């Protein structure tokens, strides 16, 4: 029996869970989904659960009441401690009263991932491929037992288009409304929030040059912009007018369910463009391109 906790924000969780499900296909797997500061939204509030029919999902939220808050704290402590006895005891109390033989935790995977090289000089897809090769033997040994794994990383190199991730009808309707406006539309993912390396290397000015280059090639081109900055949106709309297509987003706060829903809508709209110009080392860019099976090019 495998217990898997995807960690991080929306697309880190999607990528980790998607690759893990591909890797352990036909095995007994339970997903431990925890709402926290990085992502405060249930999986079931975003995606149709029918596609996960062979997967058991346990959802925790530290924001609902004091009891759940303490459960989430203890779950995090279970991962932080190096004491195997305490780990196993907390697992039996919090998740399921069975014996776990092995733990493979995100903190240990992070050390392996970081050892691959400086992200400034890396291409995300290549780093993911190197990482999945690096952990292949250990991962296969781990999943052969009753185990608990937590990760925000791609767990295997299996090619997939996120078939299990189907947005709920309410979100899909909003995606459809936006994408019906697409005509020769190019996607732009401009990261300006908390990803410092993306901001530094994939600057607003470089994205403007991309727009100008594409318009020189085809003046009929339009651009769907997914960004975590209202200022970026307004600057582009003021300069390029009807060439820019965006969704209305009320919040970029990851602790807001509405913000996460908006991120899903933007993600799937990006996936419907002809090509994505994205931000350096951004999983969001990568996942959008993989969902749509389209080319992505990093702006830097």
Mind sketching the topology for me?
Layout: E1 2-6, H1 10-23, E2 29-35, E3 56-61, H2 66-80, H3 84-94, E4 102-104, H4 106-114, H5 124-134, H6 136-143, E5 147-151, H7 169-179, E6 185-190, H8 196-201, H9 204-217, E7 222-227, H10 230-240, E8 244-245, H11 257-270, E9 276-278, H12 283-292, E10 296-298
Parallel strand pairs: 1-2, 1-5, 2-3, 4-5, 6-7, 6-9, 7-8, 9-10
Helix pairs in contact: 2-3, 7-11, 11-12
Count of discrete structural domains: 2
Secondary-structure element series: EHEEHHEHHHEHEHHEHEHEHE
Question: What's the count of strands?
Answer: 10
Main sheet strand line-up:
3-2-1-5-4
Structural class: alpha/beta
Report the major sheet. Answer: 5 strands, parallel
Radius of gyration: 20 Å
Poorly predicted segments: none
**N/C terminus separation:** 43 Å
Beta-strand percentage range: 15-25%
Put the structure in a nutshell.
This protein is of the alpha/beta class. It contains 12 helices and 10 strands.
How would you describe this protein?
By secondary structure, the protein is of the alpha/beta class. The protein folds into two domains: 2-151, no CATH class; 169-298, Rossmann fold. Helix content is 45%, strand content 15%. The chain is built from twelve helices and ten strands. A five-stranded parallel β-sheet has the order 3-2-1-5-4, sandwiched between helices. Strands 8-7-6-9-10 form a five-stranded parallel β-sheet, sandwiched between helices. α10 links the parallel β7 (222-227) and β8. α2 runs antiparallel to α3, α7 crosses α11 (257-270) and α11 crosses α12 (283-292). The longest helix has 15 residues, at 66-80. The termini are far apart. The mean pLDDT is 93.
